[in-house]
Amino acid sequence: MTNIKAVIMDEAAINRALKRIAHEIIEHNRGTESLALVGIKRRGVPLAKIISNNIFEIESVEIPVGVLDITFYRDDLSNIDPMPRLNNTEIPFPVIDKKIILVDDVLYTGRTVRAAIDAIFSLGRPAAIQLAILIDRGHRELPIRADYVGKNIPTSQNELIAVNLPEFDQKTSVEIHDIGLDSHD
Fold first, then answer.
1. Closest CA to 131 of 106, 155, 160
2. What is its EC number (predicted)?
3. pTM
4. What is the pLDDT along the chain (185 residues), one digit of tens a residue?
5. How many helices (H) and strands (E) does the chain have?
6. Which domains does the chain have, with CATH numbers?
7. Measured between alpha carbons, how far is 147 from 9 in angstroms, rounded to an integer?
8. CA nearest 38: which of 109, 158, 152, 128?
């Protein structure tokens, strides 16, 4: 059981962060040529769609969005489920020679991102892979860092960051919870 310690971002703050990330992606890549967004299931998918919509509002260019299920690429697969199920990776574009922007909600140990990179490379070799994260909470176990960060929120191991999105939670916010024990990425 967890206790909410604080709401760190409300809907307006999340929207501002995602608009800023869209601007940073365009600036860093000197435009939108060869860009594609890939949301890591679950909460990375709606975030990728919002960033794509923001880029369209800025540049009037539609950036394709893919959905990535990393289930079979996790390094802790045997600890999660003895019968894992693939929940549909949907990449409607070739990844070869694309600048892939992986999108996820929270960056913690880095293991999810490592699994996502492995999954992308199983589909082909992109020109580049970049990482957009709504929340970076620290505590990396792998040498992975985000290229685009909505907000850095230093946490303890006894805290959990909950990103609430309407598709899953009927609200939009980022909360920090006290869980009293270690959480996982």
1. 106
2. 2.4.2.9
3. 0.91
4. 678 999 999 999 999 999 999 999 999 999 999 999 999 999 999 999 999 999 999 999 999 999 999 988 866 554 545 555 556 899 999 999 999 999 999 999 999 999 999 999 999 999 999 999 999 999 999 999 999 999 999 999 899 999 999 999 999 999 999 986 644 45
5. 5, 8
6. 2-72+91-179 (3.40.50.2020)
7. 20
8. 128
Strands (E) located in the chain: 3-9, 35-40, 65-68, 99-107, 128-136, 148-152, 159-164, 173-178
Which residues, in sequence order, are CB contacts of 29 under 8 Å at separation 6+? 35, 99
φ, ψ (nearest 5 deg) of residue 75: -85, -5
How far CA 56 is from CA of 19, 31, 49, 172, in Å, comes to 11, 12, 11, 22
Instruction: State the angle between helix axes of 44-59 and 11-28 in degrees (0 to 180), rounded to the nearest 10.
Output: 60
**Side-chain half-sphere exposure of 61, counting CA atoms within 13 A:** 12
Of the CA atoms within 13 Å of residue 109, those in its CB half-sphere come to: 14
Contacting residues for 157 by C-beta, under 8 A, at least 6 apart: 139, 182, 183
Short-list 112, 183, 100, CA closest to 142: 112
Write out the E strands in 17-127.
35-40, 65-68, 99-107
CA distance 140 to 134: 16
